[in-house]
Amino acid sequence: MNNLKCIILGGGHGKRLYPLTQFRSKPAVPIGTKYRLIDIPISNSLNSGIKDIYVLTQFNSVSLNNHIHQTYKFDYFSDTKVQLLAAEQTMGNMNWFQGTADAVRKHMTHYSLKPNDNVLILSGDHLYRMDFNEVLRFHIDKDADITLAVNPVEEKETRHYGIMNLDDDERIVDFKEKPKEKAQLKTVDLSPALKKRYHIPQDKPHYLASMGIYIFKARILEQLLLGNESDFGKEIIPKALFKHKAYGYYFKDYWRDIGTIDSFYDSCMELTKTDSQFSFLAPQKIYTHPRFLPPTTIAKSVIDQAVIPEGCVLEETHIERCSVGLRSILKKNSQVEDTVLMGADYYEWKVPKKFPPIGIGENTFIRKAIIDKNARIGKNVSIRNEKNLDNFDSLNYCIRDGIVIIPKNGIIPDGTKI
What we know:
The protein is α/β, with parallel strands linked by helices. It is 17% helix and 29% strand.
């Protein structure tokens, strides 16, 4: 893998994940009780033996930068590096990143690309496990200029992704970026031969979505970035497909794009299942920041289908189908169901008199919610979206896709009903 360099895109706004991205970038959003989304592509790269990893950052980058700096440290004798490349103004260019392709373009001098190198470009907000050696082997065997990893999706999902069709040699012959109309899909339904090869049911249309995972020959990438195009999915990829040899690498395993509140919530709920398609228990480790926290303390509690890390205090509480974050505090007679608790960044030894303490207060009931870090939920609170609203904004909470979200550092006073 010495000739494969990895670039991870971590600088987007993350508007569809708001308010989880109010104070952090998308790749810095916590997942799986103790990890962050950025840990997924970095860990996949390290497990694949990639030694040169660059993370491009821009919006709300402090939390992400701190996490990477504190987590991915290598000894003096290792030639592996995870290097942060923040958006910067230079004498040659005073603009910030204008898109994914523009972000890669602006840091070309830092990658030290050689003619025989290949460049792997990854998104920073997906949940999956992949051996990039297999993708590179496919890329080399096909003598591809560009390889896109693809995953099967049904028609209702196509409007969220770049959708493509392949010929029998797996070369890309058609591409539609986030098609909004059914008529646009006529030319990208998979052929019976490919459905048979990929073990996809023949009885209804299936489509191949771009996973936002690309491998370019270095010289091809440099050529493509000579213009002014700012985005890979909308501009670079459609332009390149018919000028260069582009192939689709079929990835059949678990993959989720954590781009919206409902996709984030669904992924967190999947992780609570013992038969989840993605598990942090797999032999290929997902790395994250090491912490030195005490064991979780559980007293007289009922816990069913939950993921609980270290450092929590659960006192006579009832938890069902929940992802519980680091340092979570749940007081007596609290009941939490179908909820993502992100926990806290610190233990609170002295509670301000005018606020509830960090954590979940006594006699509080929570169902189908996301409680972000350091939230203060008072006593006798009910959070269950009683009016069944799809979307709503309030001063101290919001509802997205029917899920109640208490933002980071949010305060819900005693007796509140939501």
